[in-house]
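The instructor's notes for this session suggest beginning with a concrete chain rather than abstract definitions. Hand out the sequence below and ask the class to guess, before any prediction is shown, which regions might be ordered.
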Amino acid sequence: MEDEVVPEIYYPQPEITGFEEFERAYEAYIEKERLPDICRPAISAANLFKRPKLSVTAYVPGFVYAGAVNLIAGEPKAGKSTLTWHLTNCISLGKKFLGEDVVKANVLYVTEQNEVSFRQETGLIPGFSENDNLFILMPEVSPAGSWATHVEFWGNKLRDTHSSVLVIDTFGSYANLPPGGENDSAVISDRLMELKKLYQHRPNLGIILVHHIRKPSTDIRYGGVKEFADLRDARGSTAIAGGVDHCMMISKATNERNVRNLHCEGRFDPENKFSIVLTDNGYCQQNAFRIGRH
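After discussion, reveal the predicted structure:
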């Protein structure tokens, strides 16, 4: 009599409606998952698609996506950190952003600013100074060492704080790039691949990289003034924009002090250009138009 073949057992996936449920279901499934030793850690497509699936893809639609590296890039003093503070404050408090519902989640914010500077600039953001769900890592407490050391440290802090969004402000301050490394595509790609190891235990992690762009110059194609920055304006190697999943390029509007122009482009939504205005109560949208996916 031939030996009976015992099929592999896969556990049924529960109905998942939020990130916390997804995290619990994913961890439980991975603990029970049985992969053939001969191919581990590689996984067949069939087994991959048996794992629990995210029911929600965005923490803030159009801005911050789950399981993705999101780039916020702007010229110095264009307000990229200010935009990021308001975004992550809304995510961690579960408040609407630009009228859009958000998915509430804890946030780990890695800043290049010291305590005095950070408190000075964020203290007037509504709800920020009472926010128990947004955790700040300042340079005073960051470990010395390589980029890999930083990534490992952040991974531990994500777990300790139960955070599902990680902000690195700015990427250049912590990437520990060698001379000329910002313009070296191999170096940049290596840094991004190391960072993506954080998805191993938290597939719904949303990573926000804050980065600099070259100051948008006058351009005859834009009537002499380039109002909206694009991906080519990101400072350094094109591997930075090419290696992330969603890009938000921020630039100052001409002759309008509190208005910022945003150019959003990536894998999730059609390309979009619009302007936002910073008020005492946060940002509001000034105008918007879709320009189509390319």
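Then share the key points. The first helix runs from residue 19 to 32. The longest strand covers residues 282-290.
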